[in-house]
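::Amino acid chain::
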Amino acid sequence: MRDREPAPQDAERRLSTKEAAELLGVKPETVYAYVSRGQLSSRRVSGGRGSTFDAAEVEALARRNRRESVGTSGSGSELSVRTRITLIESDRYFFRGVDAVELATRHTYEEVAEWLWTGRILPGSTFTAPSASVAVARRAVDALPEHAAPADLLRVATIAAATTDPLRFDLSEGAVLGTARTLIPTLVAALPPAGHRRRDEGPLAHRLWSRLSVHKDPDEASLRALDAALALLVDHDLAASTLAVRVAASARAHAYAAVSAGLGVIEGPLHGAASGLAHRLLQDVLDQGDAAPVIADELRAGRRIPGLGHRLYPGEDPRARALFALLEQIPRAEPALLAARDIVETTARHTPLHANVDLALAVLTASCGMAPSAGETIFAVARTAGWIAHALEEYGERPLRMRPSGLYAGPKPPQPLPE
């Protein structure tokens, strides 16, 4: 159905700020932002406060926004969404226009998260978990069976934390940022310890270490590598889990529900769980002392080699390059680094592919006394900050815009009722 063109009698119809905001699907402040950018004209109300807007002009802007905000790519095969958060191009990626690798290697995870959310670096940023939400989340996580996957633990912790927050339906920017700063440390605090006492103070990476590694006292280089891994993985444009988050936010689900949607997708072996496959491959190479027979078994079974190649990077994955550089500063990581290099070189005889961040994560987890699933936990905790950034961005867009049309390919109706 075509959008109705304004009739001649509509030409002078004026809208209030509230009416214009509703038609555009944005907040009233955004309407004035359109005015300041020259996208809308306004007229002061005679003898009163506020402004009015030409209805035809507002409707034209609404149509333009719908076309631009959710459409198809040039190939006509992929959904595209306007975003100001992450850009990936020429084997590099950028957070709000700033080189993401430089951010991750110069700032902590918490500082990078704040940059992603607000466009400001807040030196010394720390996230604190409320004791009430931690207690409820821990009880929920402790009730799960031992074989529960990392995404299961984090999803249950997220839902539990939501139940302690009666203001979770407040989608204003300040409220959502408050949720983000308490949810992420709550997720870490809810995880069971890795064989020794939980650490519940200090930087987030230090707290997470006590949940992942059997090494009780990490050296500074290992902690720095874990913190950088979190910062490097904080966002990566519209990955599958991030799209799920934006769909939830488009329906105005609260931040906890949006994060839960992302966690539901992240378990896939082609997404957050990929580092676990790379960890097991790397461990097999370490056990056998040679990548060739391990790679041969993978190829014979018809499986792709995990930890290699990335559809968005024809060359080297910049996240892997940065993390490998930090791992080289950890003496105990040398055997795993050599095994990773052996995997890349052996596979290059068949298909020349660069190492991706999953293989770098595998080196981190295998050399620091962590389980194969630890990479998935690191990925999920890190990406939660990016999901919040995308949810915030989506809350500022027209509601329910993430509603593509299905291309029906079933039997042509009307069909007879089944017997």
User: Anything to note?
Assistant: Residues 1-11, 71-77 have pLDDT under 50 and may be disordered. The radius of gyration is 24 Å.
